[in-house]
Amino acid sequence: MLRFIFCSTVLLGFSALAFAQDKAPAIAPDPAPYYSVYLIGDAGEDTLPGATLRQLGAMLEKDPQSAVVFLGDNTYPHGLDPQDGSAASRISAKKLSTQFSVLGNYYGKTYMIPGNHDWKNGRWQGLDYIKREGAYVNDYIKNNTPVANKVDGGFFPKQGLPGPCSVLVKEGETNGFMPIRLVFIDTQWWLQSAFFHSVGREGAQTKKSMEQHFFERLDSTLNDASRKGERVVLCMHHPLYSNGFHASSMQPVRFLANMGLLQPLGIFGLNRFLMQNIPQPRYQKMRVRLLTLIEKHKNLVIASGHDHDLEYFQVHDNHFIVSGAGSKLRKMGTGNTASIFAAGPQHGFFKLSFYAGNKMRIDVYSSDKQEMIYTFIEP
Length: 379
Known about the structure:
This protein is of the alpha/beta class and 379 residues long. It contains nine helices and 13 strands. The radius of gyration is 23 Å and the shape is globular. It starts with a helix and ends with a strand.
């Protein structure tokens, strides 16, 4: 009888343990990070805060030790119109302000970078549009939000220049907390320049000399960050890896617009439309040069928007994020790069959490499901 009781007790104990293991969360809870970076792109469609912005705002309010980056296409369809009192000007400004309405009780840092739509969707006068948007954003942040960088401004790069611009958002500490640096570049600058399409210039430099200067400065910035032991988040609008809509080649339309004697079709805007797709020659040239430089470094996070989905890649010891589902959705395309995670069409955003010992956690949040849908933790 005693043997029976003993065996039953042991079996019940093992059953309880197995049940507890079945019910245990798949990911053990982490301690609170010492800093976080939220990444949301293409949020400029709505004139009232949608579910994605509301979810982001609720998280920001509870997380002052953080920064949020809006990754371009901040007001659709063609940037911030001249503020002349017209209906178009009011709507474009409202779409921009809607994103900042979630910052009313946020005491972290806020940044915004340009996308192709902010450059008047690649049309002429795009430089005027981007300068106007930059001034509007910086003024709004300064006068209408309590964010920590309200004096320094939040729109980078400035004046339609390509960058790079960098900000040390979190200084390092002696207890193993690594400093965190955000680096901003304007990828539309590379795609914008065309007949009648001006871009920002520094002094009397040609576009070619500015391109060379850009890569020298970006390389210097990344090398300096590496020497200082900083974690770098490189923010740009156009993705370097994506399986989204803009990864599609769109043949034979691309051939007609870009090859030989058929290039005059570009006068009708066809080439400008295709310029936003990764296989387009000018996009490819920019992409290859950036990847050649980036692949010299490790543990970078390269964050982008543009494709209206949520994607995560690991390539050459670096992390590539596409977070372009802030307000618009589009089905996945025909890209052929193996992703670690992909969700589309689904609204949401990414969160990077940083811990002692140079550890990082990547979370993906879906506002459609109102929950976290993916987590990656560095080993």
